[in-house]
Design a protein that fits this description.
By secondary structure, this protein is α/β, with parallel strands linked by helices. 40% of the residues lie in helices and 15% in strands.
Amino acid sequence: MGSNFIHHLINKYPDYKIINLDKLTYAGNLENLKDIENNPNYEFIKGDIADPNLVEELVSKVDIIVNYAAETHVDRSILEPRQFAETDVLGTLTILDAIRQGGNKVKLIQISTDEVFGSLEKGKFTEDSPFRPNSPYAASKAGGDLIARSFWVTYQTPVIITHSCNFYGPYHYPEKLIPLAITNVLENKKIPVYGDGKQVREWISVWDHCQAVDQIMHEGKVGEVFK
């Protein structure tokens, strides 16, 4: 998600300066941005969004933060819930507090998920749907979103929250459903089926999502939530 958005910005806005902060956990891959690593307007920094000293330093250098950093895999969250809370909740809080301490001059685009809303038998979620997370991953993202909202209400920290469905596209980590199904077929393995196989999931191209976040970043009103 993040690497595709950086490619989108580099190609569309060649004058923008971009700082990429990434902890490089198991899913991080610098090869995704190998083609732009020497671009003078691009800088990579290895670090944790839950590191207050590092985040405070970087916040002082930017105008906008797009927070793609998150632990995101439901199955892993069941095994390691604390790690998800530390990144998705504490990490988001660290960014927000650095923005507040700096005078609320930096806008945060909080990239979240529709999984915070839980499941539906019929109908659709809206921006005002209640949070009913069903996994530690969804709960951790909901926690980060609620903290972001509270900073907007309490401190007027400029925040916009997005709740997207699942992505597909280049650089998709192979543990995710679509690349997992494809690689299993290529290796003559079975495709995993979750639950009873009747669940419905929505998907969006990562490039469509990049364009949506681009528009929200430039035209979205602070305090709003986009679904």
